[in-house]
Amino acid sequence: MGPDGIHPRVMREQADELAKQLSIIYQLSWLTGEVPDDSKLASVTPIHKKGGKEDPGNYRPVSLTSIPSKVMEQFILSGIMQHVQDGQGLRPSQHGFRRGRSHLTNLVSFYHQLTHLVDAGRALDVVYLDFSKAFDTVSHSILLEKLQPMAWTGALFAELGTGWMAEPREWW
């Protein structure tokens, strides 16, 4: 359960009654750019990653938000992903976070390019980097800068930048 204390089963069982009210809230939020303050609350729980459990650096925070907030996030995500799937947001070489692609397809593509260059007798340099910690945090300002050209310039986009992501409130 999130900070609202409502169990997901209650939401599922009452979906027919709640759908109309939630759709009104979502539409008003989209049109006005205002996200209800309760939607910004999260119960933060530390999850052990690896290493010794006594080291706080070996934990990552997981934010549990309310079910209605997650539903709204899914609507926004589906809109962004539709835009990306239409080929307007990512280069063809992008493998991460794309349907049907993964680190394995990236490795196969890299191997193919590498063997092609070697077969052609071309000079080749390879640099290996460890990005294991690089994706633990995302710069919200950079993310919003990348989303801005994607027609997300309306009121809700402004709220994403000034409210939801810029001032996350957490409930412990």
What can be said about the biggest beta sheet?
A: 2 strands, antiparallel
Q: Helix segment count?
A: 6
The order of strands across the largest sheet is: 1-2
Strand element count: 2
How much of the sequence lies in strands comes to 5-15%
Order of helices and strands: HHEEHHHH
What is the total number of structural domains? 2
Helix content: 40-55%
Query: Stretches where pLDDT falls below 50 for ≥5 residues?
Result: 166-172
- Overall shape: extended
Class per helix and strand makeup: mainly alpha
The radius of gyration over CA amounts to: 21 Å
Name the average pLDDT: 77
Instruction: Give the N-terminus to C-terminus distance in angstroms.
Output: 13 Å
What key phrases describe this protein's structure?
Reverse transcriptase domain-containing protein, extended, mainly alpha, 2 domains, 172 residues, two-stranded antiparallel ribbon, RT_dom, DNA/RNA_pol_sf
Quick summary of this structure?
InterPro entries: DNA/RNA_pol_sf, RT_dom. With 172 residues, the protein is mainly alpha-helical. The chain folds into two domains: 1-89 and 133-171, no CATH class; 94-126, no CATH class.
Explain how this protein is built:
With 172 residues, this protein is mainly alpha-helical. It folds into 2 domains: 1-89 and 133-171, no CATH class; 94-126, no CATH class. Helix content is 45%, strand content 7%. It has 6 helices and 2 strands, in the order ααββαααα. A two-stranded antiparallel sheet has the order 1-2. Residues 166-172 have low confidence and may be disordered.
